[in-house]
Amino acid sequence: MSQQEGYSPSFKRPAEIMRMRRKRTRSDARVSSSPSGPSSACSPGQSDSPRACVRPFSPGPLFNTQDRSGGGMKRRNPFANIENTYSPKKKCLVYNDGGHVEAVDSSSVGTEEEGRPAGPPLGARLAEAETREQHESSQCRTFSEDDSLFEEEEEEEEDVKSPLLKSPQAIAPASIAAPVCTEYPADWSLKTRLLFTSPLTLAWAQHPKAQEEALGLHHHCRAAFSVLPPRLQDPGSCSSLRVAFQQSLVYWQHPSLPWIPLFPRINAERSFAGKSAPWAQDAALQQSLMSEWAVSLSSLYSLLKARLCPYFYLCSHQFTVLFRAAGLGGSSSITAFLSPTTRGLREAMKAEGIEFSLPLVEERKNSREQQSQAVQHGEEEDEEQKCPELKEGKASQVGDEGEDDDEDGSFSWLKEMGIQHKIKKPDSITMQLHREGQTVSLDHKPESVVCVEGPHTFTLINFLINCKSLVASTGSQAGLPPTLLAPSAFRGATMHTLKARSVNVKSQVGSTFQNISSLEITGPILPSTLHSVTTLLRPAQKGNFSASLYTHTPTAVMNTHTSKQQSSGESVDLSGCGLHPASVQQLQQPSSLGKTALTHINMSNYSYMWKN
């Protein structure tokens, strides 16, 4: 019998029907226990037939009714109807000669029995099959609302139940839990200001004790890092937290002039205006400052090469340079980024033999070439399909056009039109200016960032020491060497700490006001400093805080990729660079920000989200 239309085994049974089902089961049990129960309900003429004592519309035969544990008639299916009187599960289980179970329809039992050899009687085999079916179904019982009653659950309904109808408790928590992001991408740009906000108080980050400040400076010099618990109940009473916070605020700078802020240097004439500059008119003093600065820069590069300093910045009045040790940023060699640059600076670097690349220009050029190749490839395929004999002619024509471009300066199309004598060609100077116009248009733009890799970084150091345009000759910054910033100590450097200030404010959320605590950090904020502070705020604020990041604009493009990427099996030991191992692990990964920088970081329930 084929399955009829309208059969719905996945129908959910309502509570009222379940109650009626349990009530009918109890009444049937009382009837079966009475003397005139099952025998009186059945007609005498049908007591020996296999379908005896079957209720109307109850699908499936009832065999050996008297052998059931209840001792009565079969329980009626409350959902059976005229169109739903057959179930593929209600089949007779018959054991064959090999001992295996065969499921056959009740209608085909007689036909199948005629063709079988002599064996056990059909009634005995059906009784044994019914007993085994009862034993198997007894293993799939659920405890009902009544403590004294167990109900059988049909395996058919469990097999066809849709997974979308499962309760939330039945679904694995891993399938519905939101992904947890425990880290944000590395940002190699310099920050001028950080503003953290949190619903919990941030007053613990301000006014440290003298001993805690001293321990923070000591731990920074010794590169000692304390282990904090993953969650802090009372950050205000945790002395190790404040010590670690003071340790993360330390940076090293050269030169150091207390009355002049030496960062940022680009477009910072207002901060230098009106300040005392005794070196402006004293050539001997300027030479002394430059000689000390050259010693500090050489010391920094030596530490960088020995992987004792992870990175450092050189900030001049025209551009900023980032030097990174091998193994950081996904690069297998020392790298240096200059931004922004001009055509004159790039030509001077070429004259000194410094090989460099323009990553953003090359990336844009490669993307354009790929797009044009894809378009040309599609057009050529269409033309070849229409006229295949043009393929060889096109190849020779491309070679001829290439030669004409070199000889006639990309004006071969004039010859094809026959007007090469009527059109005046531009002279060589105009052509050169036209070619150099694209190069000059990059000046002072993010696309002018220059990347120097490998041993050419040492040549770049010598170039910067001897470059006369590195120091301003006029203006408020005249005669002042560039600023050197590093997370580790170097020769001639001065230890500085960032300024931190905590304020409690009320913010309107809807129609109510909520108390929000804020923490403001100002100064030249290095990439490792940002990571150290966010690592401390994670347990202190119980995984809930947000941060607004203010980037020094010329350094935003220093997140670009380099050409010499580190292989997967190659590893560089940076354990002696003086940074926390977690910060080193983050800075080793290639940045995914491109020519942009992070502007916002939000942590909610120990999961990071960011915006760039």
Structure description:
- The protein has 18 helices and 17 strands.
- It is extended, with a radius of gyration of 42 Å.
- The protein has 3 domains: 15-90 and 140-165, no CATH class; 191-244 and 495-611, no CATH class; 254-359 and 444-493, no CATH class.
- The strands form 4 sheets. Strands 10-9-8-7-11-6-12 form a 7-stranded antiparallel sheet.
- It is of the alpha+beta class.
- Residues 37-71, 88-95, 106-118, 137-177 and 389-409 have low confidence and may be disordered.
- It is 35% helix and 16% strand.
- Strand 7 (311-315) and strand 8 (320-324) form a beta hairpin.
Mean pLDDT: 76
Q: Tell me about the largest β-sheet.
A: 7 strands, antiparallel
Give the spatial strand order of the biggest sheet: 10-9-8-7-11-6-12
Provide the structure class: alpha+beta
Number of H/I helices: 18
Give the count of structural domains: 3
Distance between the termini: 65 Å
Radius of gyration from the CA trace? 42 Å
Report low-confidence residues grouped into runs of 5 or more.
37-71, 88-95, 106-118, 137-177, 389-409
Number of E strands: 17
Assign a percent range to the helix content.
Answer: 25-40%
What share of residues are in beta strands? 15-25%
Overall body shape:
extended
